[in-house]
Amino acid sequence: MSPSHKRTYKVNILGAGVSGLSTALALLEKKNYSVKIYATHLPSDLSIDYTSPWYVRIIELDTATFNRLAHLADTDPNAGVMYLTGHDFWDVKPKNFEDPWFKRLVKNYRHLKQEELPPGVEFGITYTTGTVNTLHVSGNGYFTYVIIYLSVHAPKYLKYLQEQILARGGTIDRATIPSLKALARAPHSTDGSKADIIINCSGLGSRNLPGVHDHQMFPTRGQIVIVKVPDSLWPKAKQFTMERYAEGSAMGTGTITYVIPRDNGEIVLGGTMEHWNYQEAASEETTKAIVKRVVATKPDLFSNATILRSCVGLRPNRRGGVRISAAVEQLDWNEGWGDSKVVVVAHNYGHAGFGYQASVGCAAKVVEQVEGCLNELDLVRASSRSMAKL
């Protein structure tokens, strides 16, 4: 429920990945928030610490993101969103297979015929799908994720979000914020005023961020390979995306092979999932293994592919899934009473490999929880002002 308050609430957000940017935009679209983002890394940066599973599949949140991105795919080419034909293959058909929840959202969903399956594959499905290419990490590359049936070229999409935020009056500052308390103390505007609301969207950084120290967070290393196919094959390759599950589990655990084209003529091949591995350098052995698995699945497209580079990134995994919460807190009782000492503290992090896929839904959910705290914030601040006079 939107608050009835007429005043504007000041918000400081930590983190400019897809979660932080999506949360900022969701607040600004409400029109009664002033938003400032603080972040060490910004869109266009190349850092292993900047990447927007537990197999976190939150249907409500994924659906909200899908609806938003489908609209962008249809209406705004600057957002970098496009449609593809997706394929999911299982080497061993899962027992008691049930059609995935997203069947109701995608177009052209069907089970593949036996003659349509690659060698060594028992079962498969196809549907109109899409991808998300997230800003990388090491090796001047970009990671790619599938979002039901929409393809988002993430460097382009992150830049789009940034531009939408700035156009609505939001501000983004490059700064390293050392703690949750420092985020509350950081100036919100040039007059030095402080935030009413702080939101932590620091991803993997939440593990060691003072004031959070969420030891449920852990890294999951992923390595991918960026390739190009001969020009004659690109018209066919740009419409093909797939995931192949080696162990035959319901939606894939263990070794997963995937192919996702990007709108710039490159194709992402993957991948790996290595918990607690911080190794930044790409493994040549892993690169060869990924390419070999892809060629075995789709030799007509990838037998003559040219390797451009290999890339490594860290997914911000969390035991127990995504943390979305908001509460009124006084961060430091030793500093006495006063408005600036009592704030709404919110969190939106721990999305593993599905940060883009759930970004709009998670942003809407954290904004909903923040708005649920505003009456309490005003009451507690009024009480603190009374206490300060005693």
Please supply descriptive tags for the structure shown above.
single chain; 390 residues; alpha/beta; Rossmann fold; D-Amino Acid Oxidase, Chain A, domain 2; 2 domains; six-stranded mixed sheet; 25% helix; 28% strand; elongated; FAD-dep_OxRdtase; DAO; FAD dependent oxidoreductase domain-containing protein; flavoprotein; oxidoreductase
Can you characterise this structure?
The protein starts with 8 loop residues before the first strand and ends with a helix. It is an alpha/beta fold. The chain is elongated, with a radius of gyration of 22 Å. Strands 4, 5, 6, 12, 13, 14, 15, 16 and 17 form a nine-stranded mixed sheet that branches. Strands 10-2-1-11-19-18 form a six-stranded mixed sheet. It has helices spanning 18-28, 59-75, 154-167, 180-185, 234-237, 284-297, 299-302, 359-371, 374-389; strands at residues 9-14, 33-39, 81-82, 84-90, 110-111, 123-129, 131-135, 142-146, 151-153, 171-174, 197-200, 217-228, 240-245, 256-261, 267-270, 274-275, 306-318, 323-330, 342-349. The protein folds into two domains: 9-45 and 157-216 and 319-389, NAD(P)-binding Rossmann-like Domain (Rossmann fold), CATH 3.40.50; 68-154 and 217-318, D-Amino Acid Oxidase, subunit A, domain 2 (D-Amino Acid Oxidase, Chain A, domain 2, 2-Layer Sandwich), CATH 3.30.9. Belongs to the DAMOX/DASOX family. This is FAD dependent oxidoreductase domain-containing protein. InterPro entries: DAO (IPR023209), FAD-dep_OxRdtase (IPR006076).
